[in-house]
Amino acid sequence: MFHFKKFSIDDSTAAMKIGTDSVLLGAWTPCEDETRILDIGSGSGILALMMAQKNLKTEIDAIEIEPDAADLARKNVQVSPWGGQIHVFNSSIQDFSVKTNNKYSLVISNPPFFTDSLKAPGKARNIARHNDTLPVRDLLKITSQLLTVGGKAAFIIPDDAFRNWIIEASNQSLFPAYITKVKSSPLHSPHRVMVLFTNEINLEISNTELNIYSSTGIYTTEYRELTKEFYLNF
User: What letters, b where the CB count within 10 A reaches 16 and e where it falls short, cover 145-166?
Assistant: First the structure.
């Protein structure tokens, strides 16, 4: 059980455990006065719950293709303060997108991003880690289709995939507005990029960097400030 300040997550049977990537993305994503939110690849429900904490009355749809993960997300939602606000669907986003009539002011996802790496043992973990079932092009195309006019979409991706994402997003009329490169420390190169796309061309793009540690085991002030509404010890 992973305890946050206002909710807890049981990830004991999840193929992918709660990690820094999802917490970073949920804390970083600008999210207020949304009309409806979509969490793609919800896993155990962490991002949907973080968005609910930020938007206390907004309806949130959480899509998860893996049945056991979807069941776990439902249980986590039910025991949270926002049980009536979050709706978990066991579905691929491809199937969900052709059935829903909803449009979203915010789409958020910590997507599977391994393409050529060695597969891990276990089907569920492979689905969570690899983009075989959700290629980048499909994800961005569906995101573009489901966004409201002026809507936004937030993702966290590997730094070495960022250039390809920008190209694919542009092909789907999605344009970067905010970009934050994530580094383990000032001495490291970026390993993740958080990017917020909109469906309107942005003449000015915000580019920032975030260091997680200032030295071994010591979190930076900026990381603590970003995540303080969620982590118990900040």
Answer: ebbeeebbbbbbbeeebbeebb
CA angle 120, 48, 153 (to 5 degrees): 85
The number of CA neighbours under 13 Å toward the Cβ of 172 is 23
C-alpha span between 221 and 22 (Å, rounded)? 19
Fold of 2-227: Rossmann fold (3.40.50)
Where are the alpha helices (H) located in the chain, listed in sequence order?
Answer: 20-28, 46-54, 67-78, 93-99, 123-129, 136-146, 162-171, 221-227
The continuous run of DSSP H or E covering 2 comes out as strand 2-3
For residues 41-60, average pLDDT: 96
**Segments making up each domain of the chain, as ranges:** 2-227
Burial class (CB in 10 A: 0-12, 13-18, 19+), 9: buried
Whole-number Å distance between alpha carbons of 61 and 38: 5
- Listing DSSP states for 138-183 in one string gives HHHHHHHHHEEEEEEEEEEEEGGGHHHHHHHHHHTT-EEEEEEEEE
Sorting pLDDT into bands at 50, 70 and 90, what band is 121?
low
Tokens found for residue 187: 């001495």
pTM exceeds 0.85: yes
